[in-house]
Design brief:
The structure is a single chain. By secondary structure, this protein is an alpha+beta fold. Strand 7 and strand 8 form a beta hairpin.
Length: 877
């Protein structure tokens, strides 16, 4: 920023009549002319100023310099610091290319410039601030280099820095003691080609309030094939009695060659809050950036055992081989398709292939079609399918297969061979051509050619039904009286309504601006008292007038004393209003008078007047005004409405085959409306289409428990129980629907509880009618009505009680289904060493608590533990 100053010009006399000395020494009178008095020294002064300006410019040109600040010192390894390239009396005119320094990276610089004039000496300065990040300890030197400036080429002197341990803020604690990362493998020794897990975790001390982490930077070594890193997961742990938080990344990999493999370190930038600094009235946190580098690790890769089977084709993992032949009976010339499919988890990037097959020469072979697929987002889960089309040329009976495939199973540490069953194909002679008898007008066939009939058609297997339209909310089961469910929400709703009304009443209070201005008055009077110059006094008095206008109601921007007194009289007595008017008049006289002459006791009288002023306070009862109640009521209604999740988009994605997008939309709908049984049903459909049958069965179980009377819900639930990979006896009996479960699944647990409440109401009504009949005189209709109501109530109570007993643990509103095998943990974290127990899929338990992606399960015997949130499906909430 340049600062400019002006030099004094010539002094000119006003345009009026004046007398000056004439050149001959006599006095001359000239009227209407502007005469300029020029002294002999004026031209000399101008010449001196010009010489001074030229000299300073030349001196600045000769004093141009470019150097580093600081010119040496220490930097922290892994810590982003800043060093400045300073241009004195010059500016860069071209892009600057810094020398390449090993293990040091420079960021994009920020530029600032300033120009100043001190004691008639002008100087300019341009600064380029470079963020620098060293990643190795030791000594670094930035060598000398040249830069282009507006003063020509200038050379920058070399500087050196010592790279030592980085410390965090002013704590004198090393970054290694605050944050650390590790790169680990599932096992320290694996087989060549074996798929293993690779995990990276970063933990930071919680009290340093980490504000963010950058993306993980890691390069796989040669010979290691890896999948992309999965999305990071938040983790927490306690290290040396201090809580830490961080992130965890997981992936899978395999090594192609045997030997000792060094896995290079991973790096990640983090931001730490190391204190705060004042910024006006606010506090601004100080953020420092550090590069965290994990230690490298080694992995022993063992060679596969020798000798290998003759048909071994470099496949390492777990595989399954299937063979199908369609059709198994055909005529000569009709095609037969022989499909071979290899699927499983292993080293698929090695271009695994299917084994060769032997076929009789009586078949013509059509080139096989090979289809390779991998699971989305993975490299090591895939399949290869090969369709061979065979056309028989002779009738007879032929055998296709068996086909064997050998692979190395790393879990067992041995070679295994899988074989398909052989298939018999019957080839009939070619069908004789039909002939037509002209006279009879019908077709005739050769008697020796028997008709081959296909088997009788059978009912096809079950497929998922179409998604359900719209949304439907089910009842939540509870152990309390149903009427309590209706009354309980009214209390917090009423309190929220009153709270919103009170807040609106405060914000719309007409006297709030006056009270705020009154609160500022003491500070304004104190500023008037401490004003040191006439200009400051005038400015503070105008601020006092504006504050006084705000207190008594602003009608005009600059009211007269009489108008101000009229406004003040609305709040003050006549004597007090006259006191304020006197203060106003004295302030105006001091501001707009010829000289500021404020009475000595003005500030004391102004403070006394402000202290004596009493404005009406805020009335809490104003919250009950209709203007304040109705907006709060509308806001409460908006909060009570469920979020608007567009199910139409999910249905369109599902119909288009984009099941992943449909899953995300319906999962959001389930999270927002846990009792929307249609959303649970549709989410199960999207999961089933992705072959995730176990999780789909969990959501279908939730839809069934919420509304078992719907046909689609029962159908999907029965399909899910049959296709799920777990066994849950409590669900299986409802899928069969025999005996007591046939009646129990006519209604949900919440509906049976409601029926129990209705039965109790019927019994009470029957008792009232019976007493009325006894005290008021017997009437046959009253007696039979009471008896009928009592019988109906008892039957309904017995039926609902039996049904609730049949539902068993599914009545609990906090019940959840574990749909996949997982680990049962004592604390909600995967870090550290703790006792764990396996928890099988199909387990039913109640959710006790939720915490950062974890849920605590409780079993009937009182046992509690934690599992990941995504491994369970709550049936109700």
């Amino acid at each position: 920023m340049r600062t400019w100053t002006s030099l004094p010009g010539e002094l000119r006399s006003p345009a009026r009549e004046r007398r000056d000395e004439c050149p001959n020494g006599s006095r001359c009178s000239r009227s209407g002319l502007r005469l300029v008095s020029r002294k002999p020294g004026t031209r000399l002064g101008r010449l001196l100023v010009a010489l001074w300006f030229g000299a300073t410019t030349a001196l600045a040109a000769t004093a141009a310099d470019v150097h580093w600040e600081p010119a040496g010192g220490t930097l922290g390894v892994g810590q982003t610091s800043s060093i400045e390239l300073v241009f004195e009396e010059c500016e860069p005119t071209a892009a600057i290319t810094l020398p390449q320094i090993p293990d040091v990276s420079f960021g994009r610089p920020s530029q600032s410039s300033q120009t100043s004039i001190v004691n008639f000496k002008m100087s300019r300065r341009t600064v380029l601030s470079y963020p620098v990040l060293p990643i190795r300890k030791g000594r670094i030197t930035i060598p000398s280099f040249e830069v282009e400036t507006d003063q020509g080429k200038l050379r920058v002197t070399a500087v050196s820095f010592e790279i030592g341990d980085a410390t965090v803020g002013r704590s004198n604690l090393s970054i290694e003691s605050i944050a650390g990362s590790h790169l680990t493998t599932d096992s320290s020794a694996v087989w060549a080609g074996q798929v293993f897990g690779l995990k990276y975790d970063l933990l930071i001390v919680r009290r340093f309030n980490p504000t963010g982490v950058a993306n993980l930077e890691w390069n796989a070594p040669a010979g290691l094939v890896t999948e992309p890193w999965a999305e990071p997961q938040n983790i927490s742990a306690v290290v040396e009695n201090e809580p830490r938080v961080g992130v965890e990344y997981r992936t899978r990999a395999y090594a192609r060659d045997s030997g000792t493999l060094t896995i290079p370190p991973a790096t990640q930038m983090i931001n730490l809050e190391v204190g705060s600094s004042a910024f006006g009235l606010f506090q601004r946190p100080n953020i420092e950036q550090y590069l965290i580098t994990s230690p490298s690790t080694t992995l022993t890769v063992r060679s596969l055992p020798s000798p290998a089977p003759a048909d071994f084709m470099k496949a390492v993992g777990e595989f399954k081989l299937t063979s199908t032949v369609v059709p198994q009976a055909a005529a000569v010339g009709e095609p037969v398709t022989w499909t071979l499919k290899l699927e499983g988890t292993g080293n698929w990037p090695e271009n695994l292939a299917l084994p060769s097959r032997e076929v009789s020469k009586d078949f013509q072979l059509i080139r096989p079609q090979v289809n390779r697929t991998t699971k989305d987002g993975t490299l090591f889960e895939g399949s290869v399918t090969e369709d061979v089309v065979l056309v028989p040329t002779k009738a007879g009976t032929y055998t296709l297969g068996p086909v064997s495939y050998s692979f190395f199973n790393p879990k067992e540490g041995r070679y295994e061979t899988i074989r398909t069953n052989s298939v018999t194909v019957i080839v009939r002679p070619a069908v004789a051509a039909t002939t037509q008898t002209p006279d009879a007008g019908v077709f005739s066939f050769t008697p020796d050619d028997p008709v081959q009939k296909t088997p009788a058609p059978t009912q096809p297997g079950r497929l998922p039904l179409d998604p359900l339209e719209g949304a439907a909310t089910a009842m939540l089961p509870s152990a309390g009286v149903p009427i309590g469910w209706l009354l309980a929400p009214a209390i917090p709703l009423l309190l929220a309504w009153l709270a919103f009304a009170l807040r609106r009443a405060r914000s719309t209070d007409p006297l709030r601006p006056q009270r705020e201005a009154h609160a500022r008055m003491d500070a304004v009077i104190a500023a008037v008292k401490t004003a040191a110059t006439p200009a400051q006094t005038a400015a503070t008095l105008r601020a006092w007038q504006n504050t006084a206008i705000d207190i008594f109601g602003r009608k005009r921007a600059a009211p007269s004393p009489s108008e101000f007194m009229f406004a003040a009289s609305q709040f003050l007595s006549p004597s007090a209003a006259e006191h304020w008017r006197a203060l106003w008049v004295e302030a105006e006289a001091a501001i707009y008078g010829h000289s500021i002459n404020l009475p000595d006791d003005w500030t004391l009288r102004a403070s006394a007047a402000s202290s004596a002023l009493r404005l009406p306070g805020f009335s809490p009862t104003s919250a009950l005004r209709p203007a304040n109640l109705w907006p709060a009521a509308m806001l409460a209604i908006l909060f009570a409405l469920p979020p608007d999740i567009d199910a139409a988009d999910a249905r369109s994605s599902y119909d288009a085959g984009d099941f992943a997008t449909a899953e995300r939309a319906w999962r959001e709908q389930v999270a927002a409306q846990p009792l929307n049984w249609k959303a649970h049903n549709n989410l199960g459909l999207a999961l089933a289409q992705q072959d995730r049958w176990s999780e789909a069965a969990g959501h279908w179980a939730a839809a069934f428990a919420q509304n078992p009377s719907d046909h689609a819900t029962r159908f999907q639930f029965e399909l899910g129980v049959a296709r799920a990979e777990f066994t849950a006896p409590e669900l299986s009996k409802f899928a069969e629907g025999r005996g007591a479960t046939w009646l129990a699944r006519r209604a949900s647990p919440a509906q049976w509880q409601a029926l129990l409440g209705i039965a109790s109401l019927l019994a009470a009504t029957a008792g009232v009618l019976y007493l009325w009949d006894r005290y008021a005189g017997r009437r046959r209709w009253r007696f039979f009505t009471a008896a009928s109501l009592l019988a109906t109530g008892v039957a309904a109570a017995a039926t609902s009680t039996g049904a609730l007993h049949t539902w068993g643990p599914l009545v609990d509103p906090n019940i959840a289904l574990v749909w996949t095998p997982t680990e049962f943990r004592s604390i909600p974290t995967e870090a550290g060493e703790q006792q764990t127990q396996p928890l099988g899929a199909g387990t039913l338990a109640r959710i006790e608590r939720r915490f950062l992606g974890w849920v605590q399960l409780e079993f009937p015997d009182g046992q509690t533990g934690w599992v990941r949130r995504e491994t369970v499906v709550p049936l109700y909430r």
